[in-house]
């Protein structure tokens, strides 16, 4: 008995349209024509892909523009605004705002996220507890991975480490860092690696978030990745310093990251909004060249970061739009380049989160239908998904627009 049929789908690598049969939460058959009277959806020649994967988002501080303004438009202004607003956060408030963002993301075709959650004595575990509830309540449509981290520092905020350990003891999936906010950046990096070893979890750092190439923390993270044997288990986000490196220095940095097994996440919307504020002309974009690193085997992802808060005062949770934004900023246009942008919101982050990114017999019936015939077209046209399924269950529908001709 089949549970569902998807008919006339365009599948990457197939020369003809195919049908997909779903039973017991999995894809059980792919063929040109599958007989059956199960409920069905006609893809009408449109592309089927695994859902998008959001590799870096902050659910706990989303949708707070009504209570937190970034008067300077700078990174420090955003951090200060959120720190002040955070004193009024409650678990239920965080849950409600996080749910709003998750529901947006679901309808934009995302079915897995890694969310960073701030932990410190000021907020305690309220954010973590709220996101844990969201993880359970939205498991039907979204897999949520929780990364706890000390946004306001570790050594300069006594009590933070104990709370991070409490979160890891109670189900946090991995550990993050923010060395540039600490009085002892190298000390924070070392301590976080020690904690990651204690709990056998991956690491994901906010790192080198400015345009001063005369110093950086990347080298210390690379050093400790090798020292602890954590190659392939460390991601670094933002790293806007990479955007101002001349070609020889960038090539050296790529070699360092590749040898240390460190991946990169770029956050185009936030990085564009916050960096270069001290320039009154020739304003730098501040977006790290992820496509150049990916070409040398570095794991690279594109992600949203923030939605409607002082770090990023806009956002609709569309990863096809974010991939397009990155392509625009990086001046990418060929089929292969746009395909790579798609891969950075699908294949690479899926691998990062330990998920399959295959549409094949035996795989989970978790996929989306996009109004395009190629992955590159999705990026160039910002194609929005019209229908999606997770583990054999339909999770959302975006009916196609209709014209009413005279």
Structure report:
With 406 residues, the chain is an alpha/beta fold. The protein has 13 helices and 16 strands. Strands 1, 2, 3, 4, 5, 14, 15 and 16 form an 8-stranded mixed beta sheet that branches. An 8-stranded parallel beta sheet has the order 6-7-8-9-10-11-12-13. A hairpin with a 6-residue loop joins strand 1 (4-11) and strand 2 (18-23). Helix 2 crosses helix 3, helix 10 crosses helix 11 and helix 11 (335-343) packs across helix 13 (375-381). It starts with a strand and ends in a 9-residue tail after the last strand.
Helix content: 25-40%
Q: Count the strands?
A: 16
Largest sheet: 8 strands, mixed
Question: Count of helices?
Answer: 13
Distance between the termini: 45 Å
Low-confidence segments, given as residue ranges, are none
* Structural Rg: 21 Å
Overall geometry comes to globular
Provide the β-strand percentage band.
15-25%
Query: What average pLDDT do the residues reach?
Result: 97
Find the structural class using helix and strand composition. alpha/beta
The ordered H/E elements are EEEEEEHHEHEHEHEHEHEHHEHHHEHEE
Short description, anyone?
The protein is an alpha/beta fold and about 400 residues long.
